[in-house]
Amino acid sequence: MLAFFRPKGATMSTLVETVNINYEDFSDSFLTCTTCLNRYDPSEHAPKLLPCSHTICHTCLERIAENAASRNPPTFRCPICRNSISIPRGGIAALPPSFLVNQLLDLMASQHREIIPKCSNHSGEELLLCESCDAVFCTRCSLPKQVENKTGEFVCHHEATVVPFSIALKRMSKIMLYKAQQCMQRLEDGEHAIINESSAVDASFTATKAAIDKSFETIYSLVEKHRSHLINSLEALRDQKKGILHDQLEILKSEKRKIEQVCQLDNPSEAAQVHMEMQSIGNKIAGLNTMLSGMGLLCDPRENSYMFFRYGHTNILQELRLCLQGFGEIKHSHTLPSLCRATVSPAIAHLSTDVVVTCYDFNGEPCKTGGDPVVVVINDATGRSIHHTLVDKENGSYEIQFTPPVPGTYMIQVKIFDRHIQGSPFECRASEHINPVSVFHGTDVGLSRPVNIVKAKNGKLYVLDSGNDRIAVISEDFSHKSTIKLPDSERQSVTGMALSPNNTLVCTNWRTREVLEVDLDGRILNRFTSSDFNCPCSIAVSSKGEIFVADSGVGLILVFNAAGKLLRKITGVAGHRLDLLQAISCFENGDSRDIVLADNMIKIYDESGRMRTQMGTRGKDDIYQSMALDSANDLLLASKTEKRRNVIEVWKYSSATLLFVIDSFECKLRRPAGLVLDGEKQLLICDMGVGNNPGAVLKYRYG
Is omega for the bond preceding 425 within 30 degrees of 0, making it cis? Predict the structure, then answer.
């Protein structure tokens, strides 16, 4: 039914056309069997809900089922979606009724009549509804929310949409029915999910019971094996005892035969022979007396029948009971995935990103144990799977780690029991910018032109603060601890510093042209100079204690032993001088020791001074300032000054491949200098600062 309404003089209100679905149309679409076109009713055409969620009347299903009775098992296809349906044991009558259709039938039976609300004071006037102020009014009644226009008629005072109240009621009823249908569908889905989960509980019980039986079969096998061993030992003991007694019986039988032979008498015929026979009998009697005296030991059984099994003489039963109590454990979970939450840390390309999943039970209480079957899938914008690690913290939380390979959007899907947790899948945007984790400017007089930094074995950081002519000692939490004052270090003369294998600090002073070694308390241990020095600006110490001094004045690298004796010189190609000589480092790389030089390229020399390779792009204004090697991860980190920016490059050391750049987007590097590794995938770099920007030490993550 299409309804129009336009009140007279409604100049301030907007009247809309409303569309109302006809009752017959609704009945044909939702309350009629699509197979026989009969309206659903409580008897012959009762609506039946199929497992595929379609509704067919009882009569049609009975007719379809007759043709399916000959099949084994009896099945038929849904007339709408053609899915195969199994006929339950009770026949079609056992199929569940369509609760939603029955509810709609009841609702439509009570509300299908047209209801047009009228004004109580003016029976001929239909009530209107202002959708802006949600007011029901009559155009002839003077109500508080009405105003009088120029023609004297009452209209709504808002610039609003006005519809007949009957249309609004029908519209709200339809919205209510739609929402009710949505709720019913959700409830039915939930019912199916609960039934499926209940079936899964039975299946899990069966599988777990089978696992218990199988595990105890091993114990039974061990027990039976030990029982057989004891019985076999008992049988062997019995056979041994009976063997001894059998041998003793044979001895007794032999002795009996001897006695029988002794007792045999001859028939004497003459007196002399009788006399001799009497003498022989006397001798036999004496022998028998001797045998009789030894019969006691001979006739005493040499073995006894004593055999006894005991098992309570030790703590073996108690120990066995304790072992069985500790054997096996039935793991279970009360985790409700829809209440579980995940916290995603800010994602940055090339750096590890953490996702922490916290589990809750159906009461909303945090779970205390782990072991849930958590399944994680991470994909990039193209759908490609991203490698990740999942760690069960065993306290009800799980830690997921992945490294976005490039900037962009990543989808993180987390399921428990094959059900999404709250908010899954998550959208994670990985930024291209890598900013410092923390910044240290100095807490006493502040850092001024910090040019180098090392980390000693005691965990403290030693910053060569050239603007203040000192070495600032900083703890790992970035609090200033003490100061080392170097001799003859005025006017920023000390520019190079390295940590020796003996955990001492070795520095270069370009003004005094000397090398100075001090301990971590600032005591001078050694100092030397060389006639070859012109402007020793940078220094490195190898694991063997050799000291490499880069001299920008002569364009050479001079190699000394710990006592200051010149060992050799490293020059450029064909003996030419080396340019720039910004920094020098010594790295242990497997069995080799590399000397790495920074200028407008990164140049790598072997221990003898022969250049093996170089990396970087030779830009007109590009200068590498310092390097550090993460040999465990095959990474070389180098600070670089370009024409318009300062960055830290991360290289694959073995292949000389640039992986990514730390741009410090929100905290610009002004003049990067020395850097050092600090813990797992973290680095510290000195920024000398420019103008009003003070010097600082910045910490970054690079993995």
Answer: yes
Bridge partners (DSSP) of residue 377 are: 413
What Rg do the C-alpha atoms of the chain give, in angstroms?
50
DSSP state of 360: B
SS3 616: coil
In 552-694, DSSP assigns E strands to: 556-560, 566-570, 583-589, 592-598, 602-605, 611-615, 623-630, 635-641, 646-652, 657-662, 672-677, 682-687
The mean pLDDT of 233-244, rounded to a whole number, is 90
Are 80 and 153 in contact by the 8 Å Cβ rule? The answer is no
206 CB-side CA count, 13 A: 5
73 backbone φψ class: left, alpha, beta (φ>0; ψ -120 to 50): beta
Per-residue pLDDT tens over the stretch 432-457:
999 999 998 876 668 888 999 999 99
661/144 Cα distance (integer angstroms): 69
Q: In Å, how far from its chain's centre is CA 13?
A: 60
pLDDT (mean) for 542-550: 90
pLDDT at residue 389 is higher than 90: yes
Please report the domains of the chain, with CATH numbers, ordered by start residue: 2-172 (3.30.40.10), 337-431 (2.60.40.10), 438-701 (2.120.10.30)
Q: Which helix (H) or strand (E) holds 140?
A: none
Tell me, what's the pLDDT at 481?
78
Q: Is residue 478's pLDDT more than 90?
A: no
